[in-house]
Write a structure and sequence with these properties.
Elements lengths: L5 H6 L4 E5 H4 L2 H10 L4 E5 L2 H13 L6 E6 L4 H12 L5 E3 L9 H5 L9 E5 L7 H9 L3 E4 L7 H4 L2 H8 L11 E5 L5 H5 L5 E5 L5 E5 L5 E5 L2 E5 L4 H16 L4 H9 L14
Parallel strand pairs: 1-2, 3-5, 3-6, 4-5, 6-7, 7-8
Antiparallel strand pairs: 9-10, 10-11
């Protein structure tokens, strides 16, 4: 019960606290905090999670000029986000969620880092239950949606890959004609993901590049629009994430040279594709 941690939050400087209405009716419980912290606002709500999501949505709407990119998929979300952030930072002021704060609470908390000077926001969306991607899409209202793949993560909860594909497709649930969806061309669910989707659909994959060559632990070498470049992260999975980043970056007007420069700055996050030499 999160209410248990209210005292600690207040001690650390919290100035607003959401409390479930039934808990707020316990007069002694809330009045004790009110007396001790007279400058703190206590807001009684039906559901604290949904309250957080709703206020996050309202906060995002304060930045109508921000181009919002949502990323989901069974794997590769964080890597795709990190690669894309390096690429778009060559041309734009970028904000993104830190690490893999992509959950029903992680994404809403992350959007509060948006500021007026940010031009592009890149936020990954994870899920471990039905309806979660729809909730997150309703918070962010992404202008651009990226799906990395449809795999088997959380299949024990959702029951089948079909159900996972249906859930991931909800990232496009608020789309209209001006929105853009990026879908992996090699995925078995590509046609389903694109079916009856409002907006523009762009398929991405190995057809975009040439001369692909593994460098082992040093990454993958390839050519894009005639320019040789290297993704300094090992493995095919990371390379496919890179292709998603390139496709989105191209749609944002980056040149092949800018993409090459951006890729050269990519470094692995702690615990992800790190190579430790002894």
């Amino acid at each position: 019960d999160g209410h248990t941690y209210i005292p600690q939050a207040l001690e650390k400087g919290a100035t607003v606290v959401f409390v479930v209405k039934d808990k707020a009716k316990e007069t002694d419980y809330v009045s004790l905090f009110v007396k001790r912290y007279p400058t703190v606002f206590f807001v009684a709500v039906e559901n604290t999670l949904y309250a957080l999501q709703h206020i996050a949505c309202m906060y995002v709407k304060k930045f109508p000029k921000l181009i919002k990119i949502g990323i989901t998929g069974s794997s590769g979300k964080t890597t795709t986000k990190e690669i894309l952030a390096h690429l778009l930072s060559e041309k734009y002021s970028v904000i993104m969620n830190q690490g893999n704060l992509n959950s029903e609470t992680g994404l809403p908390l992350s959007v509060f880092a948006i500021r007026e000077y940010h031009e592009v926001g890149i936020f990954e969306m994870g899920m471990n239950r039905r309806g979660e991607i729809s909730e997150l899409a309703s918070v962010l209202l992404p202008d651009v949606g990226v799906i990395t793949n449809i795999g088997t993560a959380h299949i024990g909860i959702l029951g089948s890959k079909d159900a996972i594909a249906e859930e991931k497709k909800e990232i496009f649930s608020n789309f209209c004609e001006k929105n853009v969806a990026f879908i992996p061309e090699q995925d078995a669910y590509r046609n389903f993901l694109a079916q009856e989707l409002k907006g523009t659909v762009i398929f991405y994959g190995e057809s975009m590049v040439q001369h692909v060559r593994s460098l082992g632990l040093k990454g993958t070498a390839f050519s894009y629009e005639g320019i040789p470049m290297v993704l300094p992260l090992p493995g095919k999975g990371n390379f496919y994430d890179c292709l998603a980043g390139i496709a989105v970056a191209k749609s944002f007007g980056l040149t092949a040279s800018e993409i090459k420069t951006g890729l050269s700055k990519v470094t692995p996050l702690f615990g992800r594709s790190q190579v430790i030499e002894r």
